Amino acid sequence: MALRKIRIMGDEILTKVCRPVDRMTPRTQTLIEDMLDTMYDANGVGLAAPQVGILKRIVVIDIGEGPLVMVNPEIIEREGEQTGQEGCLSLPGQAGVVTRPNYVKARAFDLQMQPFEVEGEGLLARAICHELDHLNGIMYVRFVEGELFDVSGEEEDEEEEIDEKEGNEA
Length: 170
Ligand code: NI
Hints:
Blueprint (H helix, E strand, L loop, with lengths): L25 H16 L4 E3 L9 E4 L6 E12 L2 E5 L7 E7 L2 E7 L5 E7 L1 H13 L9 E6 L1 H14 L5
Antiparallel strand pairs: 1-2, 2-3, 3-6, 4-5, 5-8, 6-7
The structure holds nickel (II) ion.
The site of nickel (II) ion (NI) has 5 residues, from helix 2.
């Protein structure tokens, strides 16, 4: 398991357009494994390669249904609308309200560079849109309706609840 450093908004690399992957190499496979490790370690639902400083069109997503690796992903269908809270590992402790399609169909390549399609609704659709934006140098803050808000306290609350369940005094 290898963790990579997550770049924080303000880092110029997060504004760059990523290059397509033309072939899978051991180096790229390692990058993908590290991206998954880094995403799980940070309790994120998605991570894009530029967030670990690599300008390649690769994203990893897991909304709790297992890992989804997407190389050179493209959204080919969008339907409906959802408005909800969104955050990003590159802007820790903050969130904002963003409207996204409620359904997307995307095409991508897997770890063996085999093409596949994936359909997502709700959170998965939101995660696919959010992560693919990173590949074009776009942060979700561009789409936020109203102000960003602080959610760093919510994580602490969750930890306190867990402590209470376990009978520990904080
Ligand atoms: Ni993000």
